[in-house]
Protein: Putative phosphatase
Organism: Lunatimonas lonarensis
Amino acid sequence: MAVFDMAGTTVDEDNVVYKTVKQVINDEGFQVSLDQVLEFGAGKEKHQAIMDVLEACTKAESIREVADNAFENFKPALDRAYSELDVKTFPGVKEAIDQLRAAGVFVVLNTGYNRRTATALVEKLGWKIGADIDGLVTADDVTNGRPAPDMILRAMELVGVSDPSLVIKAGDSGIDIEEGKNAGCGLTIGVLSGAQNREQLEVAGPDLILDSLADLPANLGLVR
């Protein structure tokens, strides 16, 4: 089976989530950059992402209080941003997912988003669980977010896979790779279509780095 991250990996939403994280942090009186948000917050549950960006990039005296305030504003701000957003997938990614599923590989999406946001993204793509993908696991569905393996283990339960060595995990941030390694995945893959660059991904030690998830079937020998 394959577990794919959403934003920056399967979903091209122009970094709107991390732009919104940046906005709500800076609304609290700071001046963090999008690059800083991507470096310290990419792939994480969003309250944790805000906490980590504040910790790494500001001199906030009460990080928990500031993060709570920012996160309270994050939800409505993101709803407004998504209402106007043209959500799409990256070129060739839907075809790659179709090729994998045709070859008998289950494909589950996982994300640091909450269930409502993730479901809205899938619906904007026009995808349906059971027809286009085999499952969706969100931060709301587990106790521990990335880099803990909980979401991958939950994805395995959904499709009845018990051996993590048979699981591919792909994502656009180092924390995706850490998540895959913590779950014991047989293959961890970084993609360059989203939050982090090659040097940042290499720190996490993925087995493979691809320009896009669209390149995965060829690398698995499914395209000749």
In short: The chain has ten helices and eight strands. The mean pLDDT is 93.
